[in-house]
């Protein structure tokens, strides 16, 4: 979590100074930077630990939120009782971003001692606390969290229900499939989508039609592509194949769907004609002027590998249209050439 763009040049010494004496912006930047501190001596690591704990009581919410996130980052490597206790206390912060940062940090640290506090938070009066607590519970102890996450599916807040569905997919217990399938009829689309994605994680394709519909919505399409590729059933492949013809604002969806079709192992195998169509989608977009499409297509080509794209890319790099992008294209050609046949 970052409320301000982090400085790439701030030193550890400067961050330790600014976090206690700088402007609000400088304090937040310092708190963020201290979570990324590497190569610190034992003495410096102790100073970072103490500085972030103090920052967790700063008067500015952005400083407290950055401090909580950084405590999660360093606590995942060196958890201490003081960090766990401070983050648990921050669950009751008056500012939602701080509460959520603390809950996320506890999940990232994964220390079992935080489980009781997160369990209590899963019944908190505030829904933003409940939904993040459910997620963190599942990260810390999936088996113990299962029944509590199932119970959260009955929550009155759709965001909590969606978080619970997503957590059940991450837990991976097949018993959840029946509970999740009922959410496919939920009145809130976000809940339907999370349930469909969670079912995909459980290799249950009852949510395929929800995922197919999500391909036509810009904010949901990439999420749906990942879920369909994870599912890897014939119905999931059919859904991805429908995206190959998308154009205009959705051309990037076609590119990513093509990459997913080519990169996924399908049983039974998809038709050879479909694979060829997917390759043509990638080549067509890798040789376009539009930077976003070209980069997306080249990235997918590098991901799926194979020498089939080299000749077309080489020809494009020689053309006047491809001349400005020749370095990037030659990089992709070199990457493809270096891959095993």
Structure, explained:
- The chain is mainly alpha-helical and 341 residues long.
- It contains 20 helices and no strands.
- Helix 8 packs antiparallel against helix 9 and helix 16 (251-263) packs parallel to helix 18.
- The longest helix has 15 residues, at 61-75.
- It is globular.
- It starts with 11 loop residues before the first helix and ends with a helix.
Q: How much of the residues is beta strand, in percent? A: under 5%
How would a crystallographer describe the biggest sheet?
Answer: none
Number of helices: 20
Rg value? 24 Å
Helix and strand content put the structural class at: mainly alpha
Could you give a quick summary of the protein structure above?
This protein is mostly helical and 341 residues long.
Quick tags:
341 residues, mainly alpha, globular
What is the element layout, followed by pairings?
Blueprint: H1 12-21, H2 24-34, H3 42-55, H4 61-75, H5 81-90, H6 96-109, H7 115-121, H8 127-140, H9 142-152, H10 158-171, H11 177-182, H12 189-201, H13 208-214, H14 221-231, H15 234-242, H16 251-263, H17 272-286, H18 291-304, H19 310-318, H20 326-338
Helix pairs in contact: 1-2, 1-3, 2-4, 3-4, 4-5, 4-6, 5-6, 6-8, 7-8, 8-9, 8-10, 9-10, 10-12, 12-13, 12-14, 13-14, 13-15, 14-15, 14-16, 16-17, 16-18, 17-18, 18-20, 19-20
